[in-house]
């Protein structure tokens, strides 16, 4: 699955949006808007100003990230190039395949990052060292 993914495989995916004078509604479905089966959902909140989260890569886990509230940036890198995505609306999300370095920063006050994952939490799925990540990308093993 994660063979030689690049930042070109990272995609903003628009979600359905039902605008309504009573308040808007959006939703996501697995294997539809989210291109994998959801095994896990978690969220990041109460991030103090200036903090950075999630500087690592996953070997297998794919993710879909939505800024449910507020705004933050997701920086994705493939060892050669990197790209910054600013998420600031709840009616689209960012699909991040496995095998990419990703970090999150510039969280606005009261921002809420909702993340769906394709696998259960597993510390062994993390690559925490950027040089190790670059080596695996160079070798073509990630
Ligand atoms: P981690 O993914 O390391 O966050 P970040 O990359 O932003 O630093 O997660 C932080 C802690 O939360 C980690 O010690 C384990 C726990 N955790 C779970 O138990 N389950 C999960 O699904 C996630 C994402 C984290």
Summarize the structure in words:
The protein has one helix and twelve strands, in the order ββββββββββββα. The protein is about 5% helix and about 40% strand. The model has no long low-confidence stretch (mean pLDDT about 95). The termini are close together. The chain is globular, with a radius of gyration of 15 Å. The longest helix is centred in the C-terminal third of the chain and has 10 residues, at about 130-140. It has one helix at about 130-140, and strands spanning about 10-15, 15-20, 25, 40-45, 55-60, 65-70, 70-75, 80-85, 90-95, 100-105, 110-115, 125. It has a five-stranded antiparallel sheet with strand order 1-9-6-11-4, with no helix packed on it. It has a five-stranded antiparallel sheet with strand order 8-7-10-5-12. A two-stranded antiparallel ribbon has the order 2-3. Thymidine-5'-diphosphate (TYD) binds near residues 40 and 54.
In short:
With 142 residues, the chain is mainly beta. It has 1 helix and 12 strands. 7% of the residues lie in helices and 39% in strands.
Q: Can you tag this structure with a few keywords?
A:
142 residues; mainly beta; 5-stranded antiparallel sheet; 1 helix; 12 strands; binds thymidine-5'-diphosphate
């Amino acid at each position: 699955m994660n063979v030689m993914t690049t930042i070109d495989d990272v995609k903003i995916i628009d979600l359905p949006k039902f605008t309504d004078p009573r308040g808007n509604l959006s939703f996501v479905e697995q294997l539809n808007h989210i291109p994998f089966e959801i095994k896990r959902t978690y969220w990041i909140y109460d991030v103090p100003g200036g903090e950075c989260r999630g500087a690592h890569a996953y070997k297998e886990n794919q993710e879909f990230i939505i800024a449910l509230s507020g705004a933050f940036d997701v920086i994705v890198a493939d060892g050669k190039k990197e790209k910054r995505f600013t998420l600031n609306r709840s009616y689209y999300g960012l699909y991040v395949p496995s095998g990419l370095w990703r970090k999150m920063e510039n969280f606005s006050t009261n921002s809420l990052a909702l993340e769906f994952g394709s696998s259960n939490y597993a510390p062994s799925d993390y690559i925490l060292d950027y040089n190790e990540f670059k080596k695996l990308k160079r070798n073509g093993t990630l």
